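Question (not urgent): is this output format expected?
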Amino acid sequence: MRRSIHRGRVGDFGIETVTLPNGITVELEILKHPGASAVVPVHVDGSITLIRQYRHAAGGMIYEVPAGKLEPGEDPRLCAVRELTEETGLVAGNLRHLTTIFTTPGFTDEVIHLYVATDLTEVAARPEADEVIERVNLPKEQVLAMIRSGEITDAKSICAVLLAVM
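Got this back:
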């Protein structure tokens, strides 16, 4: 059974009464989320384009790969293409699916489809009005060093970059 508490732009937050595999019945707070796509743009020289985006919940600007929420019924691949162009002004000649991950399965059903984009061309970026984004192009080695040092802390971005360069 589910009791919805709040429906917003991010998803539907509610309380679900569930019986666990051990037979115990509990109430769980669950965020139902439509899912998202994220993409690692890799240039011919091996460099990677990241974005620095303002994230209020994270306390300010953080490094990420371009990503965004799926529209109702949207193909995750098309979402990746859209977000890449909107947030970076890049168009991929080649887009390859890396994997699909759960973000935080303790309280949400959100999955993110991870892609790598190559054969990139430039167009005009079109960030949404509520996005504060700075595009950054960095050598692959620097991005990996930033992951190791903890300068890049966004989980989807770490997963996507590591899979893209393996």
